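Tokens help. Consider this.
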Amino acid sequence: MQCPHCEGDLPFTKCPACSREIPDDSRFCCYCGKALPEAQPAAGQAPEDSDYDFSKRILCSDGTCIGVINEHGVCNECGKPYEGEPT
């Protein structure tokens, strides 16, 4: 599948109903309208129906970033290492 603007290759999957190429992470086929199975959460994200405890998140110490510190000790948004609570 190609981007209509830059003509670069885009990741795609095939619709299980009509077998046409559709963009990855689509919720519905843009050709036949069939609802697609939900995608698995990306690495580092908790599934919505899990027992994930949001109170145990460690927020980015940058103070202006919305990211969360991942298992490697760096922010999942800006990539900065955790430096403790902002002052």
Observations:
- The CA atoms of residues 67 and 78 lie 7 Å apart.
